[in-house]
């Protein structure tokens, strides 16, 4: 996904009044204010109640839902290599964004939807740097996660336990 692809999706969401928050690698780049690596997809956090409108919007952009995966984490792709990975959540009483209704531990921490960043010169809503760090250190990192962690560490001084 190019920065232009990302902005197209975000601008379409804004035009429809659909709040979304950039997550994943693009969120890391957003909080850094620059693109640090290529991205295969755009991870977006969104309210579960906005799913029907988001599905229609993504279909209008030529993105088709892929089979499989949990209902709270649908993936949409087109034939041109664009991919959007939705992370649908409901806010709970503690302000966490619970994604899996059967496992409330699968959730964005409180404060996850307070971030702002910049992609290709445009201000975007995204997960804040500290939340991104917390999430990306919560599972065994892949090569691209190691790049994201190194960039966050250099910019914000975060350190992993045991480093």
Description:
The radius of gyration is 15 Å and the shape is globular. Strands 1, 2, 3, 4, 5, 6 and 7 form a seven-stranded mixed sheet that branches. The chain has a two-stranded antiparallel ribbon with strand order 8-9. It is built from five helices and nine strands; from the N terminus they run αβαβαβββββββαα. Helix content is 33%, strand content 23%. The protein has a single domain, classed as Beta Polymerase, domain 2 (2-Layer Sandwich), CATH 3.30.460.40. With 163 residues, it is an alpha+beta fold.
What can be said about this structure in brief?
The chain has 163 residues and is α+β, with helices and mostly antiparallel strands. 33% of the residues lie in helices and 23% in strands.
State the distance separating the first and last CA atoms: 32 Å
Q: Give helix % range.
A: 25-40%
Q: Can you summarize the main beta sheet?
A: 7 strands, mixed
Overall mean pLDDT: 96
* Helix/strand class: alpha+beta
How many DSSP-defined strands? 9
* Count of helical regions: 5
Q: In the CATH hierarchy, what is the architecture at level 2?
A: 2-Layer Sandwich
CATH class group = Alpha Beta
Element-level helix/strand string: HEHEHEEEEEEEHH
The number of domains? 1
**Proportion of beta-strand residues:** 15-25%
Large-scale geometry = globular
* CATH fold assignment: Beta Polymerase, domain 2
Contiguous uncertain segments of 5+ residues = none
Rg (C-alpha, Å): 15 Å
């Amino acid at each position: 996904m190019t920065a232009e692809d990302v902005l197209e999706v975000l601008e379409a969401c804004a035009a429809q009044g659909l709040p979304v928050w950039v997550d994943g690698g693009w969120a890391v780049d957003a909080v850094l204010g620059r693109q640090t690596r290529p991205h295969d997809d755009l991870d977006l956090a969104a309210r579960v109640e906005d799913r029907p409108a988001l599905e229609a919007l993504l279909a209008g952009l030529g993105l088709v839902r892929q089979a499989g995966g949990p209902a709270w984490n649908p993936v949409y792709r087109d034939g041109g290599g664009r991919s959007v990975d939705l992370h649908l959540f409901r806010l709970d009483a503690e302000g966490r964004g619970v994604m899996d209704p059967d496992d409330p531990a699968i959730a964005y921490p409180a404060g996850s939807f307070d971030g702002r960043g910049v992609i290709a010169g445009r201000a975007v809503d995204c997960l804040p740097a500290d939340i991104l760090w917390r999430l990306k250190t919560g599972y065994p990192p892949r090569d691209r996660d190691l790049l994201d962690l190194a960039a966050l560490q250099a910019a914000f001084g975060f350190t992993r336990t045991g480093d």
